[in-house]
Amino acid sequence: AIIAWIIVGSSMAVSGEVNFVLIGFVFQLISQLAECSRAVMGEVVLSGGGLKLDPLSYTLFVAPTCLAVLIGGNMATWDPAIP
Predict the structure, then answer these.
(1) Mean pLDDT, 10 residues at a time, over the chain (83 residues)?
(2) Is residue 13 within 8 Å of 7, Cβ to Cβ?
């Protein structure tokens, strides 16, 4: 029942948007894949997949990797015309 309300609210928010942009869809797809991979990796590492890290140590290892990926993406898509 809650999912139906979410779908109705989302469809009302995007009414009139009929232009499909493939690059936006690809970015969203890659983003979801990366987020799911991060969540699965965190679950494996925190539950005892060999390393047995606590949450703070896990964040210490994951945060620099995420920063590197974000900086790479930012450099690839940088446009100095955008303020």
Answers:
(1) 84 71 86 88 77 82 88 90 82
(2) no
Both tokens assigned to 57: 């140590």
Q: pTM of whole model > 0.85?
A: no
Residues 51, 57, 59, 60, CA torsion sign: negative
Q: Which residues contact 58 (CB under 8 A, 6 or more apart)?
A: 42, 45, 46
What is the residue-wise DSSP string for the chain? -HHHHHHHHHHHHTTT-----HHHHHHHHHHHHHHHHHHHHHHHHHHTSSS---HHHHHHHHHHHHHHHHHHHHHHH--TT--
Rounded-to-integer distance, Cα 8 and Cα 17, Å: 15
